[in-house]
Amino acid sequence: MSSENPTTNESLPAEPIAEPIKEQPAAIQLKTSILEETEESMVDWLGERGFPKYRAKQVLSWIYQRRVDNFQDMSDLPKSLRNELEAEFAIFTSKTQEAQHSEDGTEKLLIELADGGRIECVLLRDGPRRSICVSSQVGCAMGCVFCASGLDGVDRNLTRGEIVEQMLRLQRLLDPEERLSHIVMMGMGEPLANLPRVLEALEIAKDGEIGLGISPRRITISTVGLPPAIDRLAESNSPYQLAISLHAPYDELRTRLVPVNNKIGIVPLMEAADRYFNATGRRLTFEYVLLKDLNDSPACAEQLVKLLRRKTAMLNVIPYNPVPGLPYETPAPESIHEFRKILMEGGINVMFRQRKGNDIQAACGQLRRLREKEPHLVSFQKQRSSPLE
């Protein structure tokens, strides 16, 4: 394996997605999801029916802040308005197909959407933190070989309302005095491949007046690393944290683990990360899933030091959470210790994250795959083609 600097790929397309992704559910809804509505669109809807515009804030705050799932429970609204809302809209259009609870407090939901698609979302409890991991697509096109989410490709993008609905379902798992503190767009799918809808959903998440009121500094968008979309995110003056799933310090290994890297390359990815930092001033996080006998060697750690040591960034190392049917394993404790030692001695700002929810298949995509089909063994020696080809 070569550790030399990777080369750029001059054939990189303007947008690294080969085929259009469907945006809307195939099924026709009898009622519109009110989670697709903005305050402005609700003002218009109310005005058309003769209700004052201030009612829009009331309706939406009942849903996002007071956690109601029934229009009739909105007790300070006129009965006539509650009836019209109930006739026109649904608050939830999906259903929870399965809920799992871990001994460490992690809870995972398998959600069936209106068109039959299935997605997953997770609530993680860690001291006072109440973090949620939310999906952005049904499936994933990025093809990371160790991830259950992308084994069957991508079906479609989620809508704004479908993303928000995951947040609300997880919020309702909390006790009344608890509130969500952190959001990570790190569930099923590639958030930057569905950037407009993701940003619309996160507007509700950070809205302190009618929304969930979560600080943008506690909201993270996690990406496999699509340089054009990273640039668009920087240009939008997005206030959110950015985490890039790196998983390898050089191109040959990263392409093996993350096939989309074949059309990107680590050098263009790092250049986009630098542009994002220069434009926003926000420190980046690089995610690195540690896989036994693949990317956990001392040589990989030394190359990571060379790649990251001059960057204002956090390296988040995550020992692999095994997926049934896949051949990858968690490294031995001594390998993890040696990897950590090299990084810390190299001056890297690194955090080793504790795995959570192992007993409930908390890694995204696992539960969906187990419920839809029997897992089949996938060989990591098989070279998968890039989804961009």
Layout of strands and helices, then pairs:
Layout: E1 32-33, H1 39-48, H2 55-64, H3 79-88, E2 89-90, E3 95-101, E4 107-112, E5 118-126, E6 129-133, E7 137-139, E8 154-157, H4 160-171, E9 182-185, H5 195-206, E10 219-223, H6 227-235, E11 241-245, H7 251-257, H8 266-280, E12 284-290, H9 298-308, E13 313-319, H10 333-345, E14 350-352, H11 366-372
Helix pairs in contact: 1-2, 4-5, 6-8, 9-10
Describe this structure in words.
This protein is α/β, with parallel strands linked by helices and 389 residues long. The chain folds into 2 domains: 32-90, DNA polymerase, domain 1; 95-372, Aldolase class I (TIM Barrel). 30% of the residues lie in helices and 18% in strands. It has 11 helices and 14 strands. The strands form 3 sheets. A 10-stranded mixed β-sheet has the order 3-4-5-6-9-10-11-12-13-14, with helices on one face. The chain has a two-stranded parallel ribbon with strand order 1-2. It has a two-stranded antiparallel ribbon with strand order 7-8. Helix 1 (39-48) packs across helix 2. It starts with 31 loop residues before the first strand and ends in a 17-residue tail after the last helix. Residues 1-20 and 365-389 have low confidence and may be disordered.
Task: Provide the descriptors you would attach to this structure in a database record.
alpha/beta; two-stranded parallel sheet; 14 strands; TIM Barrel; DNA polymerase, domain 1; elongated; 389 residues
